[in-house]
Request: fold
Amino acid sequence: METDRELSFREELLEEIQQEILSLEGSELDEYLIALGMDPNDLLESFDAVFQAPEIAAKRRKFAAARQRPRESQAPLSAMVLSFDPAKKREIHSAVTKRVDLTGDMTIAARNRRIESDNDLDSFLEACLRLGLIDESGKLKE
Reply:
């Protein structure tokens, strides 16, 4: 168990490190962090992840809610989208992918963004419809 003196020393040391970090910028800060045994790039990624985590969690909740909706209510709509010719389906897929690349609103992780069959494409379009990314005519929703 730490004594009051050890705790006080630890607090002073942390305060000193914090003040030093706050006084440095750029390469000087990187060098100081490296001297402490920290990787500046890893720290930056960790910092970014703190802010991305709530956003990702919200997107996962939206996806989970879409998956819980009864498929019957989506059946007439998905039947319409799935009845499009393959060229139209690929056009819709391309439009969704472009929007995702531009906005970062959604990640397309399944199948490493590859559509290898007509069934893959149908599954992707059905998911986009259930998530509200496209309407029943295949147009992107705003």
